[in-house]
Input
Amino acid sequence: MRQTEGRPSPKRELRFYGHPVSPGIGIGPIYEALEPKLSFSSKKIQAADIAAETARFEDAVSQSRKQLIKLKTKLSGLPEQSQTEISPLIDAYLHMLGNSRLIRGVRTRIGDRLLAPEAAVMEEAEAQAEAILALTGSDEEGRARRAEEVREISRRIIRNLTRLPFRSFADLAPGTILAAEFLRPADAALIQPTNFAGIITAEGGADGHTAVMLRALGLPAILGATGVLEAATPGTLAIIDGEAGEIILHPSSKSLMAAQARLAARSRNLRALARLQRAPAETTDHVAIDLQANLELPFELPMIAESGAHGIGLMRSEFIFMNREKLPDEDTQTQIYTDIVQAMDGDPVTIRVLDWGSDKEVEALADYTPDTAEANPALGLRGIRLLLRHPDLFETQLAAILRASAAGPVRVMLPMVGFQAEIIAAWEIYDRVWRRLKRRGVWVSESRPPLGIMIETPAAALAAAHLAKHAEFFAIGTNDLTMYTLAADRSLPVGSKLYDPLEPTILRLIYETGVAANNARIPVSLCGELASRPEAAPLLIGLGIRQLSMHGAAIPRVKRAIRAVSSRQCLHLAAQALAAADADTVRALLG
Ligand code: PEP
Ligand code: MG
Output
């Protein structure tokens, strides 16, 4: 974002467009969320703590080294020319993390001058950068670059010392529209929705995990909005429309009045939808559809309670593991799951075990990830594949879920299943944990909670008839199913037509999965973002789906769409869509 100093701020109204990710109108000043500023006063330590503080510093250095080695492996996926440009830089950083002047200097500042490691790194790096800049000679640019390299590596070490979250939102005033180049899912989990009027990022696609988290916050949000950060200065007044994907900077009074009118109309619409809370979700000919909620973050629970949801169809347990220094132990997890199960008051809660990997980074699991970074993390170790490699983690989570089952109905769900062997291996572990708890007399539900799987890879959808012999329920995850089937990243930027869950290929996989589940007499639901699109509900019903799980705020709108159609109309629509040649044709059918 441009800084105001010395630059005139344009008064003309400016419009930008991005991908609408979460509906609503937000009006407020824009501020950019930056990486936290690192500054440390010369904090002293006790002589008795020198060894411990030095060890903390050495840990941070080794952590930094690991990260850079991982980055270096990732570079192998880049074109050769880019590799040759970046590799020497990474090598320079790695060199500085060896027994370099920087590292020796920091050790001395800790040991002799009793400085806390954060301050020691800061001061030593600054002193070295100043010394480099003060050198004489012709290569001024080279000196500036080297000084910046020293500062950059010191920032990395300090981040690993303090384990600061990547973003800091604490300094932003309430009512702000939060802008950022990009947000990770873990950043989104730190956002307090009551503090913001809306969210904009320059990067990101509609069904990426960040988008999923932002929808859960219930704030208007637009991702992939190019140009806004460059055009705005801190505090620029803006209107964002999370349904149209429109951002207006420096709005005229006419635009402000129009936005306020839309805001009022939206509140009226929400009040009308709220009246549907108790109405049954059924077609005009009384085919009942079970509407459940997805839960990403615990503060969604009150909203879910008001949405008319019958239980939680997908609890993404990742939030429990994100933004923590240490992994949550069995007791901590048990408490979190129990609170959620109790809050649902007898309605079932489907807890998906940790789906980590790909774009869902979990810092506390850094030591668990493979030593060599994968060139294509979405195609490598992720979800159940990682959990089976780390049975200790898996068992802890299963034990906690089973203990929470004493508080109400629970189902356990496995993410990213591709092969029958994975379910069989998971069953062995699940049974073992169940028996162990029973043997110890731990209070759990009377009967073992059902174990089901996500169908989110084409392999799983195509093998659904076989997998149904081992799974007690299916949940179709169209976000990943679309990504893997169409070979198109779900976080692809706006305007990309590659990623589209309405492609008839995806619809066929949904249909076939439903048929396999019905033949095996196991329940099947759909919990990808497609479930939250009201216009898609009749199509999904026509494809045989009777249970939909979505973010709570979407339930009333989806219910209204269901109550307006007959099951015959749904069947007719699905038959046409299955025969369609492409997603545009399907979209036209949906009207
Ligand atoms: C999906 O892939 O559709 C899904 C529901 O899982 P997630 O979005 O958490 O990957
Ligand atoms: Mg998924």
In short: Residues 251 and 257 are 10 Å apart (CA to CA). The pocket of magnesium ion (ligand 2) is lined by residues 456, 477, 479-480 (CB under 6 Å). The first strand starts at residue 14 and ends at 17.
